[in-house]
Amino acid sequence: MSGLITNPGAIWLVVAPVDMRRGIDGFSSIVQQALGGSPCAGSAFVFRNRAGNRLRLLVWDGNGVWLCQRRLHQGGFIWPKAADACFSLTQAQWQWLAMGVDWQRLSAVPNPDWQV
């Protein structure tokens, strides 16, 4: 994640858009009630607004809760259209998502089988 925030055990995207006026307690209640998880279990939860140009990250660092926000000035974040309430991301996918890149189309380059 960054130098200040410890790396979470898992990163979860909350698929449905949320009201960005919520604070730490509001986002924590979404995690507990709608997703059945604990905001203090070591996972990070990513939320987005309806317009898709802002996201918020809720993460427990072992001592307290971080609530961070990112806004794109142009375009929007690429979000899954999953039937599930949550979608799991890898660290690499999270980094691409936070930069506004279409992380769903990125994949590792296959190693070609070279022959001499």
Percentage of residues assigned to helices: 10-25%
Radius of gyration (CA) equals 16 Å
Q: How many DSSP H or I helices?
A: 2
Assembly state (oligomeric): single chain
Task: Summarize the biggest pleated sheet.
Answer: 5 strands, mixed
Total E-strand runs: 5
Structural class: alpha+beta
**On the 0-100 scale, what is the average pLDDT?**
83
From the N-terminal CA to the C-terminal CA, the straight-line distance is 42 Å
Beta-strand level of the residues, as a percent range? 25-35%
Question: Overall 3D geometry?
Answer: globular
The largest sheet has its strands arranged as: 4-3-2-1-5
What is the H-and-E element order? EHEEEEH
For the record, the count of structural domains works out to 1
Low-confidence stretches: none
Structure description:
There is one protein chain. The chain has two helices and five strands; from the N terminus they run βαββββα. Helix content is 16%, strand content 25%. With 116 residues, the chain is an alpha+beta fold. The longest helix is centred in the N-terminal third of the chain and has 11 residues, at 24-34. 22% of the residues are buried. It has a five-stranded mixed sheet with strand order 4-3-2-1-5.
